[in-house]
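Aim 2 progress. For SIS domain-containing protein, the working sequence is reproduced below.
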Amino acid sequence: MSQQMFDEATSAPDIIAQQLHNNAARCEDIASQLRSQPPRTIMMIGRGTSDHAGVFAKYLFEVGCGIPVVAAAPSVAGVYKRTLNLEGCLAICISQSGQSPDIVQQAQLAKAGGARLLALVNVVDSPLGRLADEVLPLHAGPELAVAATKSYLASLSALCQLCAYWQQDRDLLQALEQLPEALREGQQLPAQLEATQLDGLKHCVVLGRGFGYAIAREVALKLKEVLSIHAEAFSSAEFLHGPVTLAEKQLCIIDLQIDDEGGPTHQEQMQGIAARGAQLIRMHVPVAPHPRLQPLVLMQRFYLDIERAARQLGLDPDSPPGLKKVTETR
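Predicted structure tokens for this construct:
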């Protein structure tokens, strides 16, 4: 049996090291333009895993740059054929393939509405790559496993590098130099998610706060894609507004702990949720060089854990049933 998902996930440190080197001058140039003409808002365009990278971008650019970030609704362009007034907006479109019709159409209408289009794309010579005003290549190489791993991590690292250059954040820039080694260390950590915890599990919730919630969306998607577990992601704060009643049914909750400004509040909230009867599986990695990069190391560990669990449960993580690599929605 092939091990595409495993091989692609474990290749992330080398890919990101190359990406950070190759994109440095390009990031600096784009960042200089953004400092010269700051956008009034940022619109994130993407589907699936790329959309989840956009959630990470929302926290990254709002916290790091003070600029509001909104998520595009591709159906506004694809179904309702509506062009928005996006003068002064930076549209960041994230795509592995750069060819999903609804994403390309959304990007076209964003430009037609006045937005400047930046594409984070793995396939540079793609419809999206050719359309964009600026391209930030992911340099992830071919991704054959249906469940994306290295392209998601490469998207997050590219976003972090752009933000660091934009804000001239020396601490984050220096930490990015250490990121590949931190990812390698994350690969060597003990597994935090075991097949025995997931065997027979039908439903679960994934909770994080801030940047932890940003990656919770991707964790939940992979649980659905790879293990066919119905998983939903919430901010731990939002979970208290109604859904917390599910905890009393001994709900399984995957708790993503990030050691940043939101960490203490998240821990306090998780203690209260556990007291209601929820069964917690805690995921935390102590090896990140910067709080903004800790989610990447945590995702690196998670990808290996879920791949291993799938095989132990008799599933093929490389080709989940009913899924294709490129989903062509309109």
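The first strand starts at residue 41 and ends at 45. This observation will guide construct design in the next reporting period.
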